[in-house]
Amino acid sequence: MMPPTAALEALTTAPLTRLENVPRNVPGLYLLHDHEQVPRYVGKTMNLRHRVWSNHCAGDENSHKFVAAYNAGRLWHSRKNALSEAGDGKVAKELRKLLAREFCRARVLPLPAISEYDLGVLEDRVRAIAPEPMNDWNDIKQIPAMEPVELVERLLDQIRWTADQRAKIDRQAARWATWKTGERAAA
């Protein structure tokens, strides 16, 4: 197994890549970068492309890091929250996925010959020595969500969504604001 210091060095010096360019069907370590290219999460997987492209961008759970980080404002959708309307929420979820895929990046360390067990051990050891903020999104139950407003506007200009689609995400933003206000009032 690769020494953790060598793995961390290889991971942090790997090229910063668009998420669609992450290699397919290969195990390894990955480092997720937010929309400002700040490294936030060290992870492991037996299939780099599937984990980064599909799960972190398009899932619904807090373990899907880009989903959790950008689940706010016009990007907000929660299957478990009565305020989130399903039809509008699907559109917001699609926009959130597009935002992550367009503006977030990853560094990857493919490890084609590693066993799943050794990969887990290596991830733990790399995370133990990783400097801040590389572990900001590791082991927390709730990532503070935010909407990067200027990037969302830029993306909306690029994808040319209809007035109906924009109205749906605006309604989701209003629902999110209502929910957040109620959450603060209850605290």
Any descriptors?
187 residues; alpha+beta; four-stranded antiparallel sheet
Short overview:
This protein has 187 residues and is of the alpha+beta class. The chain is built from seven helices and four strands.
Can you characterise this structure?
- With 187 residues, the protein is of the alpha+beta class.
- The chain has one domain.
- It has seven helices and four strands, in the order αβββαααβααα.
- The mean pLDDT is 91.
Task: Give the SSE map.
Layout: H1 4-13, E1 17-18, E2 28-33, E3 39-45, H2 48-58, H3 65-69, H4 86-103, E4 105-110, H5 116-129, H6 149-159, H7 163-186
Antiparallel strand pairs: 1-4, 2-3, 2-4
- Along the chain, the helix and strand elements come as HEEEHHHEHHH
Helix content: 40-55%
Distance between the termini: 48 Å
Overall spatial form: elongated
The average pLDDT is 91
Low-confidence stretches: none
The largest sheet, given as strand count, sense and whether it forms a barrel, is:
4 strands, antiparallel
Query: How big a fraction of the residues is strand?
Result: 5-15%
Count of beta strands: 4
Question: Cα-atom Rg, whole angstroms?
Answer: 18 Å
The tally of domains stands at 1
Total helical segments: 7
Organism: Pseudoroseicyclus aestuarii
Protein name: GIY-YIG domain-containing protein
